[in-house]
Amino acid sequence: MKPEELSETSVSLSMQPYSGAWTKEEAAHLLKRTLFGPTNQQMLDAVNNGMNATVATLLSINPINPPLTYDPFETISPIGTTWVNSVYPSGTIAAQNVETARLKSLGAWVMERLNNPQISIAEKMCLFWHNHFAASATSDSRATYNYHMLLRSHALGNFRQMVKDITIDPCMLLFLNGATNNVYSPNENYARELLELFTIGKGPQLAAGDYTNYTEEDVAAGAKILTGYTVDGLRSTTLPSPIAVYYSVLHDNSTKQLSYHFNNASISNGEATEYQNYIDVIFQQAAVAEYICTKLYRYFVNYDITLDVQTNVISAMSATLIANNYEILPVMDELFKSEHFYDITLRGAIIRSPLEVIFGMFNATESAPNFDLATNSDMYLNLYYVAETMTQSYASPPSVAGWTAYYQAPAFSKLWVNSTTIKTRFDISNYVTVLTGIPVNGFNLKLNSLQFYNNLSLPDDPISAINEMCDVFFPKPISDTKKTALKALLTNGLPDATWAYQYQQYVGGDTTLEASIALRINVVLARIFKMPEFQMI
Predict the structure, then answer these.
(1) Phi, psi at residue 322, to the nearest 5°?
(2) In angstroms, rounded to a whole number, what is the distance separating the alpha carbons of residues 385 and 327?
(3) Once rounded to an integer, what is the mean pLDDT over residues 235-240?
């Protein structure tokens, strides 16, 4: 039976450690789900290193550099230095000019982070948490930067502590009106999303104002618990960063009563730390673990969750999360070493997001801007706008629920593709391969296609080369007919021996052949990036 003919009932539901063959196919599946475009060499290294060592390397969060000033409208921090702890100039227009420059720097920074050759799940986890705690950029880019670094610092850490820290993060306080939530004018925005989206989930409605996991009274009580915090230092000319400030006079010091969903717990006045006590009560409910593990599963494994998967896989993940005091790392370690994760039916089950499309091309071909700071930054900013055109604007999710493709049933990741966005996917692939590239400051951003091809195991053998290119860009094997068509594009229909001879001549120093060889490689890549199989991961 062919893999594509396997039925859903054949899916392994075992969370026991995977003990099957560890080949390039399994290694590639792991890396494609955890990186933004692994290279051929990374796949080969993963095979040699083995599953356990590869997973251990992936589950690390490495330090990163902060965004740098590159726009001359930044008048406080010199070009080439970071602005993340710099003040703003006085005057509305001057401060706005600086903020515009910092926003551009921030946009380039988040794209540069994704264009990262390291074997680390960090950026995939950061995007997951950004979608989960979906806050848009504030009017002060320092607060936005700090929010993103908070997500990174907790990416594989303690989920409960992460919720506590995000609750009083200035960016989130501003985004969901926590900064204006006080005893005189309670605001339920954050209190509602804390329950519905961030921790326990809503579930089906049981009665008026009563849902599976909480009631409207819980939302109202939560709003009172969360009163008292505001944000100071926005665009300050003296403070290096916005900060959350607690004012006792703005806090509701009454005892708050929760519903039967929380065992009728009462939260007494705890002043500045009362919100932490409330979150501890929320996390006593097992539904929190099930809710976040379901989201992790949809993001990393498959959006289509059957009853069997819920019962066997997600329940096991939830049990691991609770047993480890809500530490995320043990859950991910268990998942990426499980029999279930490597089941053949799960490969290619998810449609690439716009960011996975873009950096699936750039990272897999070991391509990155390599010009001056301003040109590199503007190139990354252009990629930011391309992703935005395809409906994924990093740092600016469409709503507090995040991007619809990560949560909206039944389509989920299918929502990334429509008649407009698929055209943009094809257009950008053409620009970075067979066309002139994306023009920036007199330079052109293209894939480093020739170097990518040169680094294949046997580049003078077109059959081997096409096989490896398919390994890199497709989630599972394609038909021999499609491979033959790709090989014909590479060789321009000539015999394999002719390609081998020409390539060997080029490697030997015949520079007159470089342009024609690069063209054939780019033609193949352009075709690959338009194939349905590339859109899957």
Answers:
(1) -65, -45
(2) 35
(3) 98
